[in-house]
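Quick start: read one record
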Amino acid sequence: MEPVAGTRRDFIVGGTAVAVPLSSARDGGFGPAASARLLAGKNAVIYGAAGAMGGAVARQFAREGAAVFLAGRTLEKVEAVAAEINAAGGHADAAEVDALDRASVEKHLGGVVRKHGGIDVSFNLIGLGGRQGDSLTDLSVDDFTEAIFTAMRTHYFTATAAARYMSLRRSGVLLALTAQVARKPYVASGGFGVACAAIEALWRQLAIELGPAGIRLVTLRSSGSPDAPGVRDAVAEHARAAGVTREAFEARIAEKTMLRRMPLMAEIANAAVLAASDRASALTAAVLNATCGEIAD
């Protein structure tokens, strides 16, 4: 385990929390030459690993020394991410897993544990779906509840399945990603904001139940990464509803943040590394504010 910094100043000066672009690393890859790998020796399961954010997190976890077990519904896409990581000197396994199916999740986790000894980190990053861009009064109940149902089902399955294995070793970290609409409502966000708020509430409930077993739960709350295709699509729907271009709507969001920009996927991935690491050992039932200052805690 990496030594914990003696003071807060030591931690900041050490540069751990500085966002590093995914295209760069001190040794140019994921190999053993780099020092101070925050996730060295950890096994991390990532759901939705073929997606833009899932892939970004997988690459950064691998760069920080974790063995990553990538899960997704389309095996070819997941294998492509794993191949890239392995070619750069990391360790990645790919598997076809339906994160909305309990049996599929448990079968995959059982295999990981049998072959590799345990699970240290689980991060669910599958897309939630649901319709955005219209008012609630214009949505069908199915359009409204799609994201809520998906969020609760998949996060419950993946978190509880991982927790059963983590509790045996009395340690582990369960991560989730939400958006600013969990706390700050946006017009025409459909059921997505409710889904994000529900994820955060589920994580708090699990935290109090799993804490005695040494399991931590941390949510990363973003204001949306403009370099993620899914975010661009959602912003486009909001822009349509507002009668402006996507670029203009993105500029509106950025203007509401203290840093006058939205967080990039690399920055969210770096925050996830910190949350999953032993440097964050006191954090649980916590929401990390990665909104670039759109929300003040």
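DSSP finds nine helices and seven strands in the chain.
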